Amino acid sequence: xxxxxxxxxxxxxxxxxxxxxxxxxxxxxxxxxxxxxxxxxxxxxxxxxxxx
Length: 52
What we know:
mainly alpha
């Protein structure tokens, strides 16, 4: 259970940082979406998949 929580937290924090980069126009929308898919596969966040 601790691993699920840790994966969820890491996913959310990573996504938040990527979103900031996109807002500052340091990465493109396409790069943001690619990153989102990569971290989704890597961390497999349980809660985010339920609500997303």
